[in-house]
Specification:
Layout (H helix, E strand, L loop, with lengths): L9 H31 L14 H38 L2 H16 L2 H43 L3 H9 L4 H31 L11 H12 L2 H33 L16
Length: 276
């Protein structure tokens, strides 16, 4: 095993330990100060939690969660389709297709998502509405990001797989569909799931155009009852639950796909002999 750094001596370990203790003490002191400040404002009183026993408040939170899932679901589906098309176009398309796909990806990856949401809302709001403007912005931004995820996953497949497929007479499209993509899915899946979670959380930016998603609903609740901490805890717990369910669903789908359609891998030892 190659060691790329010197093992810390007693003084270095002592300084590291002191720095860790001091850093932890500072963080704890700041957290205690914040909690005491909020407690002095009555944010932890039992009365601040009473609105969440009201059926109307719970119904409003449920509607906000459904609006979040509705926007995120369509945006993720469109982003996956768009990302796969852009990745394929950049990898195997004609020169002008590759240039278009590359320019599209670089443009929408560089633009802030908030600007995209505002652009679609103010430019196409009469046609798309708040829901359509939010979905369009999320789909374009996340589609551009997922395109690079797909491209990196496909390029990570050993080059010998493409060469073996070409030797068997498969076209580039057949090689991509039957050989490269199934093998790349396992590599891409964690990044795809992470980006889907990001897309779900980014629906919270819909509050800037007054889309009635979960964060907007929470904002209306604490503006009415002045209970920002309990509302933040409830809304955060709902976001965490949705993200965990999304991750679990993606893992189940991946396992189902692996059982239904095993990955085809071309090995030199298994390739049929070439007849002269």
């Amino acid at each position: 095993m190659t060691v790329l750094y010197d093992v810390p001596g007693p003084k270095a370990r002592r300084r590291s330990a002191i720095g860790s203790v001091v850093g932890t003490a500072v963080v704890v002191a700041i957290a205690v100060a914040v909690v005491l400040r909020l407690q002095s404002q009555g944010q932890f009183e039992a009365s601040k939690w009473e609105p969440f026993g009201d059926g109307d408040i719970l119904k409003a939170l449920g509607k906000g969660a459904l609006a979040t899932l509705r926007a995120a679901g369509l945006a993720i589906a469109l982003a996956l389709v768009l990302g796969s098309l852009l990745a394929v176009g950049r990898l195997v398309g004609q020169r002008y297709v590759r240039l278009f796909a590359t320019g599209f990806i670089e443009l929408f990856r560089a633009l802030p998502l908030v600007l995209l949401i505002l652009f679609f809302f103010f430019r196409f709001g009469d046609t798309l509405g708040r829901y359509g403007a939010l979905v369009a912005a999320l789909a374009l931004y996340n589609g551009a990001v997922l395109a690079e995820v797909f491209r990196a996953g496909i390029l990570a497949v050993p080059r010998g797989q493409s060469e073996a497929a070409a030797a068997l007479g498969l076209s580039r499209a057949q090689t991509m569909r039957l050989i490269l993509v199934p093998q790349a899915v396992r590599t891409m899946l964690p990044a795809i799931i992470a980006q889907c979670v990001v897309a779900l959380k980014d629906t919270a930016l819909g509050f800037i155009i007054a889309y009635p998603e979960l964060l907007r609903t929470g904002q209306l609740i604490y503006n009415g009852f002045f209970n920002i901490i309990p509302t933040a805890i409830v809304v955060a717990a709902m976001y965490v639950t949705m993200n965990l369910l999304l991750s679990r669903l993606a893992i189940l789908l991946e396992r189902r796909q692996s059982r239904v359609r095993p990955v085809v891998r071309l090995d030199a030892a298994e390739a049929p002999p070439v007849r002269v």
